[in-house]
From TrEMBL:
It comes from the Eukaryota. InterPro entries: Catalase_immune_responsive, Catalase_sf. The lineage of its organism: Eukaryota, Fungi, Dikarya, Ascomycota, Pezizomycotina. Transmembrane segments: none annotated. This is Catalase immune-responsive domain-containing protein. GO terms for molecular function: heme binding. Residues 1-46 form the Catalase immune-responsive domain.
């Protein structure tokens, strides 16, 4: 990706993220893209205009990024350590209760 394309990507993502009214959604989105590339998340964070009164720190995004792969993944439906259901029928009931 060229430097100009990278700047455009950061600008366009930050512009759309600026329309979000809830800081938690912004934090979660930035945490997910932090796992893709930390410099991408930092670039978007720096360009985002926050609507709410108290913008959050980027260190909060870094801390949330550790749990980002588990956002909106209910524990009951996650694969267990013994059975990943990769193309095979489950050995037992597959809800983790």
């Amino acid at each position: 990706m060229t430097e100009q394309a990278r700047k455009n990507l950061h600008h366009n993502t930050a512009k759309m993220l600026s329309h979000v009214n809830y800081p938690m959604i912004q934090q979660q989105y930035l945490a997910q893209i932090y796992n893709i590339a930390p410099e991408y998340a930092r670039g978007v964070y720096d360009l985002t205009t926050f609507k709410h009164k108290q913008p959050f720190e980027f260190s909060e995004v870094e801390a949330m990024s550790e749990q980002a792969p588990l956002f909106f993944k209910h524990v009951k439906f996650r694969p267990s350590q013994g059975n990943r259901l990769v193309g095979f029928a489950p050995d037992a009931p597959f809800y983790n209760v």
